[in-house]
Amino acid sequence: MNASPASSVSAGSDASAAADVSAAPDASAALEVSALPDVSSPRSISAAPSVSASPTVAAAAGVSAERSFSAPPNRSVAPEGAGWQARLRLGFAHGGSRTVLRERTHEGPLYVQRPFYPEGGVCHVYILHPPAGMVGGDQLVTDIDVAGGASALITTPASAKVYRSAGPVAAIRQQLTVEAGGALEWLPQDTILFGGSSAAIHTEVSLAKSARFMGWEVLSLGRPRSGDHYRAGDLRSRTQIRVDGAPRLIERQFWNAGDTVLDAPWGLGGNRVVAAFYIYPAQPALIQYAREIIASGGHDGFAATLLDDLLVLRALSNDATAMREQLAAIWSPLREAVLGRPGCAPRIWAT
After folding, report:
1. What distance in Å separates the CA atoms of residue 63 and residue 316, rounded to the nearest whole number?
2. Which regions in the chain score pLDDT beneath 50?
3. Which of 173, 202, 162, 145 is nearest to 58 (CA)?
4. The predicted structure's pLDDT at residue 83
5. Helix (H) or strand (E) holding 115
6. On the chain, which terminus has fewer CB atoms closer than 10 Å, C or N?
7. Apex CA 317: angle with CA 160 and CA 253, to 5°?
């Protein structure tokens, strides 16, 4: 891999992994890892959010309305009512022979229609956003809870889109909680940041020690085939993964179009598709298996790092379709190793 994502990564137990990068001069990204405490009984703790939607959406999602998505210079978080204010809460529980969608509430244009069961007991759900994109001032809040013994796979039918903004930020907050003995696969399609867009994306993953999680985040900058080369725009993102309340990964990415980090070899290297794939729990044998999959499949641009018991795969590309296909090809064998189930791609991926 000859280029690294624009985040500063300090390795856990595998400091020599190819995905490790040093801090970029003009990129204020960071990843912090602390040791796992001695916990005798697993429990699920929701991490305290550092961003919020509007007071109405925030209160419904359990987010403090006194705190706001941070906006870059010359940008602003739009007041309530300035854009779509939407939230979705899903709760999954073990229902005997299969996982059931026990809770499904939504406000605004963000919802699911019905669960699917293409592989028996695992509940597949597709999150729908009918507007098909976000503009400045839109705020989307998603809250997922997977109870003990439940297994859920969540994806989206198409790429998310953040359109050009005249000033206000488009804000996305995602809280994913997996309780002891639960399993969640969070596999959305990519988020396209149009040239001139302003986006704030905050993802928090709270896992019990005995939970299992496979999830990815994919960003596409601009639409090169349509002549959009992301000449303007900005992103503020934060991803946190905690196990029994102890941080495994805290990562921030802040950039503006034109920043050195987007084209420098120590940054994105001119690539416009950036992916991170997180897998928990993981042992040293799993990272070796992941590297074998990457090498044997010819998945150029991928690298793997083990942060304590969290496996992190990172990738760069200039082709969003190729990235999606490679992630699916890597996910399938790793799924069997981590979850004990063969790959069963959501049917929506084939449409």
Report:
1. 33
2. 1-70, 80
3. 173
4. 82
5. none
6. C
7. 65
Going by C-beta distance under 8 Å and a sequence separation of 6 or more, which residues neighbour residue 100? 92, 93, 94, 115, 123, 150
Which residue shows structure tokens 């439940």? Answer: 150
| 3-state DSSP helix/strand/coil % of the chain, to nearest 5 | 15, 35, 50
CA 199 to each of CA 72, 161, 222, 315, 337: distance values in angstroms, whole numbers, following the listed order: 9, 10, 13, 21, 35
What is the C-alpha to C-alpha distance for residues 349 and 188, in angstroms, rounded to an integer? 10
What does the buried/exposed string (b/e) look like for 106-140 if buried means 16 or more CB atoms within 10 Å of the residue's CB? bbbbbbeeebeeeeebbbbbbbbbebebbbbbbbb
Give the pLDDT score at 253.
93
Q: Count the Cβ atoms, other than its own, within 10 Å of residue 15.
A: 11
Tokens of 258: 């034109």
The pTM assigned to this predicted structure is: 0.79
Residue 132 pLDDT: 83
Residue with tokens 């990964």: 249
